[in-house]
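Fold it.
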Amino acid sequence: MSNEIPEELRSFLRRYINSVSLLDVLFLLKKDARRKWTPQEVSIEMRTNPSYAAAQLYELLAMKCVSIQEPNEFWFNPQIASPQLFDQLEELYKSHRATLIHFIYSQPIDSIRNFADAFKIKKD
């Protein structure tokens, strides 16, 4: 199933994307890359609360997928990967949505993985 996802996209998803809602916000901003969005505007568009929208925007900022202009306006400005990768990801999202969702949510969460690693028995 995940072999429908090219390796470059699988690597990106494993490293950066932990929820479908994060992709939804990313694609919202990508739709009109010149537009600047506030957390309030994103929350209205995504039908979520403003603090959650702000958290998603700041997560995308930390990933270097968006940029910020004060006061609190974000726009699509990917610096971690080529714009073509985001085009491919969006196309995959449209054509193989269930596969992509399954892949995202089947990945171990880093904090859980780190916690589990603490209990691994090592040979001396």
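The chain has a mean pLDDT of 87.
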